[in-house]
Automatic annotation (TrEMBL):
<feature type="domain" description="AMP-binding enzyme C-terminal">
    <location>
        <begin position="436"/>
        <end position="510"/>
    </location>
</feature>
<feature type="domain" description="AMP-dependent synthetase/ligase">
    <location>
        <begin position="20"/>
        <end position="377"/>
    </location>
</feature>
<dbReference type="InterPro" id="IPR000873">
    <property type="entry name" value="AMP-dep_synth/lig_dom"/>
</dbReference>
<dbReference type="Pfam" id="PF13193">
    <property type="entry name" value="AMP-binding_C"/>
</dbReference>
<dbReference type="Pfam" id="PF00501">
    <property type="entry name" value="AMP-binding"/>
</dbReference>
<dbReference type="InterPro" id="IPR045851">
    <property type="entry name" value="AMP-bd_C_sf"/>
</dbReference>
<protein>
    <submittedName>
        <fullName>Uncharacterized protein</fullName>
    </submittedName>
</protein>
<dbReference type="InterPro" id="IPR020845">
    <property type="entry name" value="AMP-binding_CS"/>
</dbReference>
<dbReference type="InterPro" id="IPR025110">
    <property type="entry name" value="AMP-bd_C"/>
</dbReference>
<dbReference type="InterPro" id="IPR042099">
    <property type="entry name" value="ANL_N_sf"/>
</dbReference>
């Protein structure tokens, strides 16, 4: 009698990412764009074989479950295979972008004390302490140049509570803050995301975020979890709009994921090439609000595409998906961020910590979810500040994530993001949400996007606005200020309005208010 093969559902990140290798091994898992415009497909079978090979090489090194592996790489078939191999061996994967300054690499290494530092390319490696093993990996395999110091193995059994990856974000104190994600949390999120039906097995998901930004890990899970293909967009091409659009066309990308700023230059310089992307049927964005004028133009250029506003923080990878209404209403206000993915619950809490049930009332957004992070690496105080007692009932001991965001619920039950609790400034005793002033400025005709910071001006905090004009538009600072005077309370009117050609972004592509502060400091 033949026994049916029991396909137990994936419990670990590596199992989830390779599930399609068992069903459609010859379909493309990763489509890499090589410089000569001829995309190279790596099948699920090939990806699984490379991961298997890396896992065997890692097993040789006598590492213990929980020993960290720093991986300096952009997203690629090899990097994904290494992510899978680390998962299989119970080794937390710590991604760092290749362009990361040596000082930051060393700060992350000092923070997480990895057993091994791997890099994907020929580039020079940052010299790390000798107890740490070093090596290089690629399609040919893993080349260990220095073995890690011998260690006694404490652990016997890998569990789903063990760490799948650690994402280091720039902590406010300058010390890198490590967001620790377990296999259980990642798989819980991946399964919820799969239920949104964003992509299917024939899709090609272009990924535009650096591997050190968990948006790339969302892209990998979205594609591979659906038996689709990941299309890593070479970072060097992202800044050239025509080359960026050409990569999307040449690879037949059907879905493009990225922060809003990736579209700015293409919208400005090559809108017609965007319109010609007739394979493109989905765009997913996250990380910050999509400036309305730019979003409207993108939806008009790609009328057949589904636009998904994906909200969340690295402490749960993401937590909600909301379709952008089409056509975008003339005055859309803060976009909906939906109501939490399946199996998660978004709560709004007032300043006394009580849950808010009414619609239209702004409060602090909290997340109850099986996909919450384990904690911040070696920082219990920060963990306790983020994972707080359940506002509905502290007695059960359940923790919820205090997101640091503000939101309100509308009459349909959807939530709307309206800024960060730490992006508020006091102006002459009045609390101002910087995003609110930014949104107002973006309503002024001809403004493409805007950013507002609080700055010390003559001993008082004043608002300084930076406004980017739409292509070919001459903006008049005086006119902008008088528009604000007519439409905002006095204390919310920026002291200064600067028309600029562009806004500085972080390595993850988000508008950097810190860089603006330095510019005016
Ligand atoms: N759709 C949004 N509208 C508006 N503000 C937002 C939005 N998504 C985040 N944010 C903001 O970004 C913060 C999180 O920043 S973060 O921890 O660096 N993580 C991210 O930005 C990416 C996040 N892990 C992620 C990855 C992949 C998909 C979705 C979300 C949130 O708390 C929000 O303030």
């Amino acid at each position: 009698m033949t026994t049916a093969i029991q396909h137990r559902p994936a419990e670990r990140m590596d199992e989830f990412l390779l599930a399609a290798a068992g069903t459609t091994p010859d379909r493309p898992a990763v489509i890499e764009y090589t410089g000569d415009r001829s995309p190279r497909a790596v099948s699920y079978r090939e990806l699984a074989a490379l991961a298997e090979r890396y896992a065997a090489d890692l097993a040789e090194l006598g590492l213990d479950i929980g020993d960290r592996v720093v991986v300096e790489s952009d997203t690629s078939a090899s990097a994904i295979a290494m992510l899978i191999a680390c998962g299989r061996r119970g080794l937390p994967f710590v991604p760092i972008s290749p362009e990361t300054p040596a000082t930051r690499v060393l700060a992350i290494v000092a923070e997480c004390a990895p057993a091994l530092c791997l890099r994907a390319s020929e580039q020079e490696r940052v010299a790390v302490p000798s107890r740490i093993g070093v090596g290089r990996f690629g399609p040919e395999g893993l080349d260990v140049e220095r073995r890690p110091a011998p260690r006694t193995r404490q652990r016997q059994q890998l569990t789903t509570c063990d760490t799948a990856y650690i994402i280091f974000t720039s902590g406010t104190t300058g010390r890198p803050k490590g967001v620790v994600m377990s296999h259980r949390a990642v798989v819980a999120f991946y399964l919820a995301m799969a239920a949104e039906g964003i992509v299917g097995p024939t899709d090609r998901v272009a990924s535009t975020s650096p591997l050190q930004f968990d948006f790339s890990l969302l892209d990998i899970g979205l594609a591979l979890g659906s038996g689709a293909a990941v299309v890593p967009v070479p970072r060097a091409l992202l800044r050239w709009p025509r080359r960026f659009v050409r990569v999307l066309g040449d690879t037949g990308a059907t879905q493009v994921n990225g922060v809003p700023s990736i579209w700015r230059q293409a919208l400005r310089h090559t809108p017609e090439a965007l319109r010609a992307l007739d394979h493109l049927r989905g765009i997913l964005f996250c990380g910050e609000e999509f400036p309305h004028q730019e979003l409207r133009r993108l939806t008009e250029l790609l009328p057949g595409a589904r636009f998904v506003n994906c909200y969340g923080s690295t402490e749960s990878m993401a937590c909600s998906f909301a379709d952008v209404p089409k056509p975008l209403p003339t005055d859309p206000g803060p976009l909906s961020i939906g109501r939490g993915h399946k199996g998660a619950e978004l709560l709004i809490v007032d300043e006394s910590g009580q849950p808010i049930g009414e619609t239209g009332v702004v409060g602090a957004l909290h997340l109850r979810s099986p996909a919450l992070f384990t904690g911040y690496w070696a920082d219990e105080a920060a963990t306790d500040a983020a994972l707080v007692p359940d506002p509905h009932d502290r007695r059960a001991g359940q923790k919820v994530l205090r997101t640091g965001d503000l939101a309100y619920r509308d009459a349909t039950g959807d939530l709307h993001f309206c800024g960060r609790t730490d992006a508020q400034v006091q102006i002459r005793g009045n609390r101002v949400e910087l995003g609110e002033v930014e949104r107002k400025l973006m309503d002024f005709g001809g403004v493409e996007t805007a950013a507002v910071i609080g700055q010390q001006l003559d001993g008082e905090t004043g608002l300084v606005a930076f406004v980017v004009p739409a292509t070919g538009v001459e903006l008049d600072e005086r006119g902008l200020r008088s528009f604000c005077t007519r439409t905002l309370p006095g204390y919310m009117v920026p002291e200064r309005v600067q028309v600029v050609s562009d806004l500085p972004v972080t390595t993850n592509g988000k508008v950097s208010r810190e860089a603006l502060m330095e510019r005016t400091g």
